[in-house]
Amino acid sequence: MEYSKGVSTSLSEIVWAIHPGNDNVGSLVNYMKSTANQLLENSDIKYVFDFPNAGANVEVHPEIKRNIYLVMKEALHNILKYSEAKNVFIKFSIDNNRFNLEISDDGKGFEMNTEDHRFGNGLLNMQQRMSQHGNICEIQTSRGKGCRIIAHGNLTI
Fold first, then answer.
1. φ, ψ (nearest 5 deg) of residue 3
2. Which of 31, 56, 58, 145 could disulfide-link 26, Cβ–Cβ 3.0 to 4.6 Å?
3. What is the pLDDT of residues 26-38, one digit of tens each?
4. Strand 46-50 and strand 87-95: pairing?
5. Contact 68, 16 (CB under 8 A)
6. How big, in percent rounded to 5, are the helix, strand and coil portions of the chain?
7. Phi/psi of residue 75, nearest 5 degrees
8. CB neighbours (10 Å) of residue 60?
């Protein structure tokens, strides 16, 4: 059952990502909200969204759209799996064809540059996804201080 649900979700994500009618900020924001709600609704984590109301028709390059979405999704998976957070804040904004995505939690945090921290593929993938098109993904965290993921850059190539 879980496997079937995962396959269905993956197919839905692929269809959304490749449909040209979804290459705009409005579609991205709606899909991000829907996914975040699905991931967090059955957890004990309180969450707040801050997404733009304006700019819904602003174009987003399909690969950048997909990468923004996948960075948010990976960050939320990490929060659910590792952080022990009580609160999550997700902010997405646009300004002159530039985006800023910030996901922060009040969880246990971790030290990025220590041997006891296993730098997993998820964090590395987030940074690589953003750098593909010259965008940036910053990870700010320390033990006991929660974690903040900031991705920012251009909506177009």
1. -60, -45
2. 56
3. 999 999 999 999 9
4. parallel
5. no
6. 45, 25, 30
7. -60, -45
8. 23
Give the list of residues 6+ apart from residue 52 with CB closer than 8 angstroms, or none. 25, 29, 92, 93, 94
Q: How many CA atoms lie within 13 A of 64 on its CB side?
A: 23
Give the pLDDT score at 18: 74
Residue range(s) defining the domain that contains residue 57: 2-154
**φ/ψ of residue 88, rounded to 5:** -135, 140
Tell me, what CATH number does 68's domain have? 3.30.565.10
- Lookup result for tokens 């990870």: 139
| pLDDT digits 0-9 by tens, 107-153 | 999 988 765 455 568 899 999 999 999 999 999 999 999 999 999 99
Angle between helices 121-131 and 62-78 (to 10 degrees): 160
Of 144, 149, 18, 153, nearest to 93 (Cα)? 153
**CA–CA separation, 131 and 134 (whole Å):** 5
φ, ψ (nearest 5 deg) of residue 87: -140, 140
Domain count, the chain: 1
